Structure formats: structure tokens, C-alpha cells
Amino acid sequence: MKGSIQKKGKTYYAVIPFAGKRKWFRGGTKKDAEKILAERLTEINKGSYIEIPKLTFKEYKKIWLKGYAEMNLKPSTLALYNIILDKHLIPQWGDYQLQGIKTAQIQIYASERLKKVGSKTVRNEITLLKQMFKHAHQWGYVKTNQAEHATRPRIEKNEIEILEPGEIEKMIGHSTDAYRIAFKTAVMTGMRAGELWGLQWGDIDGNAGQIYVRRSLWGGNFQTPKSKSSIRKIDIPQSLIFELKKWKLACPINKYDLVFPNTDGELTVHNTAIKSHFNPALRRAGLRHVSFHSLRHSNASMRIQAGQNIKYLSTQLGHSSINITMDRYGHLFNDMDFTRQQVELLEDSFLSVRKPLEEGKKEGLEVCAVNS
Q1: How far is Cα 96 from Cα 57, in angstroms, rounded to an integer?
Q2: Domain total for the chain?
Q3: pLDDT of residue 61
């Protein structure tokens, strides 16, 4: 098969007969067109040429949502991605040909967005673009994945908010009866908000002293927890088991058998619970404003101060690896009080080993003395 170089105006094209038609490939300069001609002829002769369909980003969005997102993403993630697409990516890229969006354009978009919003927001948007282009490449809608090498902004780590044990007691003491045990359970287990609101009575094993995390509730939908490691057993003290048994008698009856429904026996809406119950409890207790997630951080902090094994701590929190735990809470292990406590634990352990050895040595000397 042969092709030719054609010129229209100032632009050169590689022209190749294919499937009964003449295919025109824009080359720009004559040299560019000659290079494209050679590449396309090689692909056609090898049988590896794929004709890329003309598709706008807006058209591809519908294909991607149906072909991947709706089947594979959690409802909360899907809802977030739809917001990003409708509010930002479609207004920016909607009428662009998918094949025409280049890495540099994506990078410029990220830079401009960083002037208006935080790095985490921009990172989420670029992550979505990367997913969409990965599938576009796999499905034959683009020849190369132009989003693959687009860099996402780094997220600066904010200092985590922690309530001290005395502050936690105050907050719980100033909570309404409807949510007091919910907040106490959050602190004592380190459960994520969605895991807490999705907890059912059948997930609590009072005899074993454990709570089973099997689902999460978010945006009015039950879904699997954040990751495989999030499906776990959390050890709880007898004092909390006693509190939960008392709460079961007062808990609003609900068709989902939830431990913490709202006051009407319906699914708890997280933002409503925070605005109507958690934030007011902080104000009544005279405490600074912190996020609800700080209860999880507080749980991790107390576990570390108690000298819990890092592997056990990671498992209880539902992290997929110890690295995540260390990355998030590693600085707490450098706390002076914690360090001093670890030295004391080491000393206690050493004494427990040394004492039997010394007693054995003493007994041995006594035996020698008797024999002599």
C-alpha cells in the first residue's frame, strides 16, 4: 500500500487509501507529514492500525460513566466525580476532541485551578482525568494517554486535631442523649463516620467484646467500607459494651436495625448530626471547634500513649498498611511523654527478665554453700 503527501493552504497532510476511503492525517510541515505517512503505513501493513473515532470529552463522559464508573465506584465516589465533571471538567473540556487534549493543557488547567482552590481539590480533579484517559486508551478512543504524565499537586499535611481525654469527657458530658453514646463509641473505637452511622446491632458481639465493621453509610446509601482492610474487628472495653446495652433500650426503633439512627429512626445524615449535635456539644463544653474526624485521631493518640503495638493499632484503625499509620501518626511516637513511657516499659520488661535470673543465681550460690 502506498500513500502520498498533499498540501492544503500552508498545511501538509499524509493521505492514505484505507477501507475504500482516503484518510487524511494532518502533519503541519512537509517533514511532519512524511513522518506520519511512514508511521501509518507501517501500522496498516502490520495490522496494528486503529482508527480513532472522533469523540468530544462531553460524549466520552457518558461512555465512561456507563462503561466503568457506575459499575465499579462506590456511590460516594461516583457522586463526587459527577460534581467534578459537571462543575469543572465539562465546562473546561466538554467541546474538545478527546484525542486533541494534550498533557500540557491538563497541566496548565491544574496550575490555574491551584490559584483558586486547595491542592487536594485539584488533585481529585486530575486523578479523575487520569482514570478517564486510562480507560480511553484501553478502549481505543485515544492513541496515547495524554493524562498519564500529568503531575498532581502535592498535598501539604495539616496538623491533626486531637482532643485530650479531659476534653473528650467534657464534650460527651455536654452531648444530647440521642448522640452521646454515638460520640463515645466514635472515640473509643476510632471508627470513621460512615462506619459509625452504618453500624447495626448484629455487628456488636458483647461476649467477645468486639465490633465488626462490615459496611459504611454515606449520602443515604450503604456501601462497603473504604478498603478491604477497613472490614475488620475492633476490640472494645466492657464499659462501652455496658453503655451500648443500655442505649439499645432507648434507641429509636428503625427498619435497618441501626445502632445510631437519627432521632426519627431514619438513616443519620452526617452533616445534620454534626451541625445539630456535635458542634453544639463542643460549644456547650467550652471547647475549640474541631472536625468530627478528630475523634478518630484522638483514639489513635490515646492508643499510642497507652503503648499499643503499631501493627495492632494499624489493624484496629483499618489502615491498609503500617506505613499509612506511621505516615499519619508517626510524629506522636516522638512525643516526650510517649518516649519516656517506652523507656519505662523497657525497664520493667528488663526487670521481669533479670529478677528470675538473679534469683536463680542466688539459689545456685546457696546450693554451693550447702554442698561445701
Answers
A1: 6
A2: 3
A3: 96
Distances (CA, A) of 234 to 179, 191, 209, 211, 315: 20, 9, 8, 5, 8
- Vertex 169, ends 161 and 337: CA angle to 5°? 55
In the chain, the DSSP E strands lie at 4-8, 11-18, 21-28, 204-205, 210-213, 216-218, 221-223, 232-235
342 in a structural domain: no
Cell reading at 85 = 465533571
Calculate ∠ Cα 341-342-345, nearest 5°: 90
pLDDT bin (cut points 50, 70, 90) of residue 338 is low
Secondary element (H or E) of residue 210: strand 210-213
Statement to judge: residues 315 and 172 lie in one domain? yes
- 361 vs 65: which has the higher pLDDT: 65
190-229 pLDDT, tens digit per residue, is 999 999 999 999 999 999 999 999 999 988 889 888 788 8
Residue range of the domain that includes 19 = 4-46
Q: Classify residue 111: in a domain, yes or no.
A: yes
Query: Does 74 lie in the same domain as 8?
Result: no
Give yes or no for residue 365 having a pLDDT over 80.
no
Q: Residue 20 forms beta bridges with which residues?
A: none
The DSSP annotation for 131-189 comes to: HHHHHHHHTTS-SS-TTTTPPPPPPPPPPPP---HHHHHHHHHTS-TTTHHHHHHHHHH
Q: Are residues 218 and 311 in the same domain?
A: yes
Indicate the residue type of 260.
F
303 and 199 together in one domain: yes
Do 188 and 328 belong to one domain? Answer: yes
Q: Residue 151 domain-assigned? A: no
CATH number at residue 292: 1.10.443.10
Query: Amino acid identity, residue 272?
Result: T
Say which amino acid occupies 3: G
